[in-house]
Specification:
The complex is a heterodimer of chains A (about 270) and B (about 325).
Chain A lengths: L2 H13 L2 E12 L2 E12 L3 E5 L6 H8 L9 E9 L2 E2 L7 H7 E4 L10 H11 L6 H14 L3 H4 L12 H13 L5 E5 L7 H14 L4 E5 L3 H7 L2 E7 L5 E8 H6 L4 H7 L5
Parallel strand pairs in A: 3-8, 3-9, 6-7, 7-8
Antiparallel strand pairs in A: 1-2, 1-4, 4-5, 9-10
Helix pairs in contact in A: 4-7, 5-7
Chain B lengths: L1 H12 L14 H37 L5 H6 L3 E2 L4 E2 L2 H32 L2 H16 L2 H21 L9 H25 L3 H9 L4 H12 L1 H17 L2 H6 L17 H10 L7 H31 L5
Antiparallel strand pairs in B: 1-2
Helix pairs in contact in B: 2-13, 4-7, 4-10, 5-7, 6-7, 7-10, 8-9, 10-13, 12-13
Classes of the chains: A alpha/beta (about 270), B mainly alpha (about 325).
The complex binds adenosine-5'-triphosphate and magnesium ion.
Adenosine-5'-triphosphate binds next to helix 2 of chain A.
């Protein structure tokens, strides 16, 4: 890194332009290097899409950002991931605290087998919620409205969240993530189990959420990436099957005039 | 991949219409296995039915005899066949007390062990611990019985509470030891239930900033509740039916008492003792043990029905 680049980074930090920064990140599962030398900066209150062929490490990178990979025995990370300028892999950082600020929505909707209400209140409660019943009701409503699902569930808040449709469950999971008021929301193929209409609803919702949250989404759907994201990162496996960042930039540019031939090939559907 | 698909489409297209053969082939192996499996099923149903019939017949003789009064049987608290007094309560009470003590030991410890195994233990630790639990489950109950009699009572209970307060045969010692005996059952059934909870639920919880403990207690255990309750009920019916430990350690005479430090014979213990003695098959004492067995049968039947109901009622749908 040159001095000029360094100071640009510092300035960006001072302005708080970036929500998350990865610096020379390598991620291993046991002895297998799944991700090699990824550096990228995620801009605040924007939607960043991770695209690339299956197995190229998109989920691995995403899950590294809130230390979700810690749960996998044998996984290990080298390099730095900065959040508010602090390396979240420093020994004094508690992954639980990281995850409270960097929320996650998964590929398969995974509401808890509890009522809709309790699903939403789960996060606040484990964070030591001490409000009144009325405040809790308000919080639940705000989260559900935020995830554009209030109207559909307002009459059945005390029914199980698992009884909703797949698309509704996914929005419930988004609402559940919103209820702890994270700064960043990670979404790993949030629409891959959903029908086109539910997908569209989630996309609209993401554009809505962008006002207050930084969103990183992994998607295999090129149209989705081009429709919703502001920035796109393209990953690819190298010869040792380690995922690498090939190209990263504004979505518009990645999709219309990519610098790298491999990006162009992937986007135009020529491989992957 | 795509190419393969295309080839197979072409291949199916060349089969001329009307030549496809869908008639069943004769599958002899299948028929033989089917018959064997049917016989196995029939034998187990037959023996169960036979046992129940014998149980009812002998119990019928007992309840039909002039010395016995059904209301007295269920409402009085003295069991003294020699004097013709047949009140089931002392035996039943002792069975209940020992079983409840056993559950008080086995459920918290077993559930704790299950949570540790499924949520905390590293794969290596689990690899060592599960076989140990299984060994514990394989120890013959007579060994537990002597363990209760020669160690738990004299060393632990009399040591802690004083020799004069603890009878050498007592329900507490039998109950505690029985708890240790059914602990592996509770642990292993609960562990199965906990491990069956999908990973995605745990990740959802961790993703919201829950700790391991919060995830275990608030997400995984509730999601596995039906399996855990089933484990508790199965353990309860094991405890109610357990014979050797209570026969050796709980006491060798019916006695109506609520004090677990005293000796009192349980239903199973009584049956074992009487049938081991030299009584005539025609005596009322002999038929009386079938009456006790019948009550025991209904107790475990009730527990099994309850467990089926609990599993259905509390099954949490995750998918
Ligand atoms: N828990 C794990 N243990 C070991 N290796 C893993 C694990 N998870 C992923 N990998 C490996 O890491 C590499 C990257 O996987 P990852 O799931 O990040 O890919 P991906 O880009 O998200 O793929 P997809 O688009 O199919 O979801 C793959 O080679 C995969 O086999
Ligand atoms: Mg993935």
């Amino acid at each position: 890194m040159t001095v000029a680049e360094l100071s640009a980074v510092d300035m960006a930090q001072a302005n708080g332009r970036y929500a998350v920064e990865l610096h020379n990140t390598h991620i291993y599962y046991g002895s297998f290097r799944a991700v090699k030398d990824v550096s990228l900066q995620i801009e605040r209150q924007r939607i960043t899409a991770f695209i690339g062929p299956s197995g190229c490490g998109k989920s691995t990178v995403l899950r590294a950002i809130n230390r979700m990979n810690d749960l996998i025995p044998g996984s290990r990370l080298e390099g730095r991931i900065l959040f508010h300028g602090k390396n979240i892999y420093d020994p004094d950082v508690d992954p639980v605290e990281v995850r409270r600020r960097i929320g996650m929505v998964f590929q398969k909707p995974n509401p808890f087998p509890k009522s809709i209400y309790d699903n939403i209140m789960f996060g606040p409660r484990i964070n030591g919620w001490r409000g009144t019943k009325a405040q809790a009701d308000e919080l639940v409503e705000r989260a559900l409205r935020g995830a554009a699902i209030w109207d559909e569930v307002k009459d059945k808040l005390h029914q199980p969240g698992t009884a909703l449709s797949g698309g509704q469950q996914q929005r419930l999971c988004i609402a559940r993530a919103l209820a702890v008021q994270p700064e960043v929301i990670l979404m790993d193929e949030p629409c891959s189990a959903l029908d086109p209409i539910s997908t569209l609803k989630i996309e609209e919702l993401m554009l809505e959420l962008r006002r207050n949250y930084t969103i990183i989404i992994v998607t295999h759907n090129m149209q989705q990436a081009s429709r919703v994201s502001d920035y796109t990162a393209f990953f690819l496996m190298d010869a040792d099957r380690a995922g690498q960042l090939v190209e990263y930039g504004p979505t518009e540019q990645i999709f219309t005039s990519p610098n790298d031939k491999r990006t162009e090939d992937y986007i135009s559907g020529r491989f992957g | 991949m795509e190419q393969e698909a295309r080839v197979s489409i072409e291949r199916s297209a060349v089969i001329p219409a009307g030549t496809i053969n869908l008639r069943g082939r004769r599958r002899f192996g299948e028929r033989i296995i089917e018959t064997i499996v049917f016989i196995c099923g029939a034998i187990s149903i037959f023996t169960t039915t036979a046992i129940v019939i014998v149980l009812f017949q002998e119990a019928w003789l007992f309840f039909g005899s002039p010395e016995v009064d059904l209301t007295e049987f269920f409402s009085t608290t003295t069991w003294q066949p020699e004097t013709g007094r047949f009140g089931i309560w002392p035996l039943m009470m002792s069975t209940l007390i020992t079983s409840i003590i056993a559950l008080l030991v086995a459920v918290p410890l077993g559930l704790g062990a299950a949570i540790y195994l499924s949520e905390y233990a590293s794969p290596t630790a689990r690899g060592y611990l599960k076989p140990i639990l299984e060994v514990l489950a394989g120890v013959p109950t007579v060994v537990y019985g002597y363990f209760a009699l020669t160690f738990v009572t004299p060393v632990i209970l009399q040591g802690l509470l004083g020799k004069e307060n603890v009878e050498i045969y007592n329900m507490l010692s039998a109950g505690l030891t029985m708890g240790i005996m059914i602990l592996p059952l509770v642990a292993s059934m609960s562990e199965d239930a906990l491990s069956a909870v999908p990973r995605s639920l745990r990740e959802g919880s961790y993703g919201l900033g829950a700790t391991r403990l919060e995830t275990s207690v608030r997400v995984v255990v509730p999601a596995a509740l039906s399996g855990i309750l089933a484990a508790v009920i199965v353990a309860m019916s094991r405890a109610v039916g357990e014979t050797m430990i209570v026969a050796l350690a709980a006491g060798a005479g019916p006695r109506f008492t609520f004090n677990p430090l005293q000796a009192a014979e349980t239903m199973t213990g009584h049956i074992a003792r009487i049938s081991g003695g030299d009584i005539s098959y025609a005596s009322i004492q002999y038929t009386s043990i079938f009456a006790i067995a019948l009550v025991l049968f209904f107790m475990t039947l009730l527990l099994n029905l309850l467990s089926g109901w609990v599993v259905r009622r509390f099954r949490e749908v995750y998918e």
